[in-house]
TrEMBL record:
Belongs to the argininosuccinate synthase family. Type 1 subfamily. Residues 181-400 form the Arginosuccinate synthase C-terminal domain. InterPro entries: Arginosuc_syn_C, Arginosuc_syn_N, Arginosuc_synth, Arginosuc_synth_CS, Arginosuc_synth_type_1_subfam, AS_cat/multimer_dom_body, Rossmann-like_a/b/a_fold. It comes from Thiolapillus brandeum. GO terms for biological process: argininosuccinate metabolic process; L-arginine biosynthetic process; urea cycle. PANTHER family: ARGININOSUCCINATE SYNTHASE. This is Argininosuccinate synthase. GO terms for molecular function: argininosuccinate synthase activity; ATP binding.
Length: 406
């Protein structure tokens, strides 16, 4: 589809410098009508100013949506049922927000009769892949416009000059205020890239972190939190029922106060390069530890081991942008089936950056049998003589091979 055939575009719009420039650039380059979409996924910043900025630029169809609960309930929580973690460290904070935003871009395009969507992701990163794979999975014939792959405005200075030339009012650009880091935030995390972090040897500056105190400055007394699980999801904290987004907001607060959730990672991007990023994920760090503790008590051994074998594959699907793929949906069905028995309470102790499991219980689904596990007299619950045959059967192939070697 050529530029002059695009009639209407739905733009993922933050109101910042990049997307404000993109809005004007789309009008000039494609001569099309623009619809803006701004999502609140818990980034902690006011989203309503984007409405005023879009109106000032002549936009008539403006979508501002609070997606925090949907994001937590339908994306983050299902991912944590799988204990998903990419390359052993990354809790997928940016990755898991993209399929929801892609879904709403497509739905708004369908509702408004738009034939294209546009985003501000660069041509070097993973987000372009995630947005576009999601969009194509849900609207296969949609046209996607990625300005960073088309224009020559490849520096902040060029973007600011373009904004000044076209009368685009971007307050922080005029004032010259900008964090030295490229940041992304939502209910699950805040990420930092760029500036001194581009050298993996440099330690992050302490004043970079926004959500967490340093473990050294965290309280000297631990904080205890009790998490109630139903079918693998947290439904209450300290006995108080909470929605999914309320759970995450609370755990981000209490975790951040105790220095929980900092991470410094060099990861392998889907597009091929290595990237160094720092992350704050207080709620996610607590949720992962507690969920595994709940599963340890309630989940059958082989079901738990199967989940652990499949988890890296599942995590890679999300990282690479395949949330809307049939393989992810098939795995999710298996994972969710295992969670039927993951019910109970986990008590965690938060102390100077650590999440320590202090207790776990399940009235209805615990597979822990004290009569069998005890080191005291088990009164016939377990016949220790049975272990001899079990060991010999498992040793049979080893003994045969050893005899052959001799």
């Amino acid at each position: 589809m050529s530029k002059n055939k695009v009639n209407k575009v739905v733009l993922a719009y933050s109101g910042g410098l990049d997307t404000s420039v993109i809005l004007k650039w789309l009008e000039d380059e494609y001569d099309c009508e623009i619809v803006t979409f701004t999502a609140d996924v818990g980034q902690g910043e006011e989203v309503e100013p984007a409405r005023a900025k879009a109106k000032a630029m002549g936009i008539k169809e403006i979508y501002i949506e609070d997606l925090r609960e949907e994001f937590a309930r339908d994306y983050v929580f299902p991912m944590f049922r799988a204990n998903a973690i990419y390359e052993g460290e990354y809790l997928l904070g940016t990755s898991i927000a993209r399929p929801l935003i892609a879904k709403r871009l497509v739905e708004i395009a369908q509702d408004t009769g738009a034939d294209a969507i546009s985003h501000g992701a660069t041509g070097k990163g993973n987000d372009q892949v995630r947005f576009e794979l999601g969009a194509y999975a849900l609207m296969p014939d949609v046209k996607i416009i990625a300005p960073w792959r088309e224009w020559d405005l490849l520096s902040r200075e060029k973007l600011m000059n373009y904004a000044a030339e076209h009368g685009i009012d971007v307050d922080f650009a005029k004032a010259g205020k900008k964090s030295p880091y490229s940041m992304d935030a939502n209910l699950l995390h805040i990420s930092y890239e760029g500036d001194i972090l581009e050298d993996p040897w440099n330690e992050p500056e302490e004043d970079m972190w926004r959500w967490t105190v340093s473990p050294e400055k965290a309280p000297d007394e631990p904080t205890y939190v009790e998490l109630t699980y139903e079918k693998g999801d947290i439904v209450a904290i300290d006995g108080r029922p909470m929605s999914a987004s309320e759970v995450m907001e609370y755990l981000n607060k209490v975790g951040g106060e105790n220095g929980v959730g900092r991470d410094d990672i060099v990861e392998n991007r889907f597009v091929g390069m290595k990237s160094r990023g720092c992350y704050e994920t207080p709620a996610g760090t607590i949720m992962l530890k507690a969920h595994r503790a709940m599963e340890s008590l309630t989940l059958d051994r082989e079901a738990a081991h199967l989940k652990d074998e499949l988890m890296p594959r599942y995590a890679k699907m999300i990282y690479n942008g395949f949330w809307w793929s049939p393989e992810r949906e098939a795995l999710q069905a298996l994972i969710d089936q295992t969670q039927e028995v993951v019910n109970g309470v986990v008590r965690v102790k938060l102390y100077k950056g650590n999440v320590i499991v202090a207790g776990r219980k399940s009235e209805s689904n615990s597979l822990f049998d004290e009569a069998i596990a005890t080191f005291d007299d088990d009164e016939g619950a377990y016949d220790q003589k049975d272990a001899e045959g079990f060991i010999k059967l498992n040793a049979l192939r080893l003994r045969v091979a050893a005899r052959k070697r001799k």
